[in-house]
Design brief:
Layout (H helix, E strand, L loop, with lengths): L2 H8 L3 H9 L7 E2 L5 E2 L2 H15 L4 H12 L5 H35 L9 H6 L10
Antiparallel strand pairs: 1-2
Helix pairs in contact: 3-4
């Protein structure tokens, strides 16, 4: 199949397929005499793996590691688990940071009158002026 068909079969855009090839995440497929890429079931399977890993938030580097482990039949599952648990920790940290941002923004929005006056505690906070106290 060509790159468009591989894209449709995997949910990975043609642009991302070419990018993944250019950075060496996936092997470049065979080409026809007229230099068109030809994807088989193996390449499609790899692209689906990459898409799923990226959907779960793994970085390109982590995806490369996981792909290498997936393709290494002599791997220890502990190596895979280490990658996954490290990613979980990073996601939990990011979630906590996002929750903190939501809490701060919710407080700032609550303190803003939202009227026609120019005074705005949200902008003041962003500018580092007149921080809004948590007691309001």
């Amino acid at each position: 199949m060509n790159i468009g068909e591989a894209s449709s079969a995997t949910g990975v855009s043609a642009k991302m397929i070419r990018y993944y090839e250019s950075i060496g995440l996936i092997r470049a497929p065979l080409r026809t005499g007229s230099n068109y890429r030809v994807y088989g079931e193996d390449e499609v399977h790899v692209l689906r793996f990459v898409r799923r890993a990226r959907t779960l938030g793994f970085s390109v580097e982590e995806t490369a590691t996981l792909l290498g482990l997936w393709q290494d039949k002599s791997r220890a599952s502990a190596e895979v688990k280490d990658v996954a648990t490290s990613h979980i920790t990073a996601l939990e940290t990011k979630i906590a940071e996002l929750q903190g941002m939501v809490k701060t923004l919710r407080h700032l929005a609550h303190c803003c009158t939202g009227d026609n006056r120019p005074d705005c505690p949200i902008l003041d906070d962003l500018a580092g002026e007149h921080p809004v106290s948590k007691g309001h």
